Amino acid sequence: MEALEREAMKLSHQLCFPLYAAARSVTGLYTPHLKPLGLTYTQYVTFLALWERDGVTVGELCRQLWLDNGTLSPLLKKLEEQGYLVRRRSEADDRVVVVTLTKKGRDLQEKAKDVPFKVAGCVRLSPEKGALLHDLLYELLSTQTERNEKEKSV
Question: Alpha carbon of 50 to those of 5, 20, 33, 125, 154: distances in Å?
Answer without folding.
Answer: 45, 25, 19, 28, 33
